[in-house]
Request: fold
Amino acid sequence: MRGRFITFEGGEGAGKSTQVARAAEWLRARSVEVVLTREPGGTPRAERLRAILLERDAEPMPQSCELLLMFAARATHLENLVRPAIARGAWVLCDRFTDATYAYQGGGRGLDVREIDALAGMVHADLWPDVTLLLDLPVDLGLARAASRNGTGGPDRFESEQHAFFERVRAAYLGRAQAEPARIRVIDATSAVDDVARDVEAVLANVLEASR
Reply:
């Protein structure tokens, strides 16, 4: 039986990592094989590309370079981890996927959506998430949460962006959710962690029921 591909999206401080881990526990308690992963990253090569994408460096990174690196990491991640896991019947829970590229590089950076469409078609035209959970919250709250989480490590290259950048990111995410309501489910991330987890579990329960 084919597995499922579930992605978690949201801006800075939305609590994706926490909810991905909670969702994995919930599914494993129901005898589902779960593979946890993230983007960019997920495999050794993709993680090296992630480090390049996130590092703050004296050499500016052109927007085209950023976009191509995102899809380079995605290509190796899908081929070497995601596709094999789904093929053997596992549920892959992924922290960010191509919706994030439309939000950050498309909405935030202002890149032509047609360029993202073309790369998505090249890398995974046949594979899109079964369900995407968009954890949504106001930008100010998300950035405050992210700042408290960073501690002494400091912000990465994306976290260092201006407030307006993240407003564009959020708008792009919500626009995609409005365009694809059957796939992208918006979850109120301003709620308590347990409440958000219950909302996530309700969506997963429907997917699980449909899979049987």
About this structure: The mean pLDDT is 94. Strands lie at 4-10, 34-38, 91-95, 131-136, 184-188.
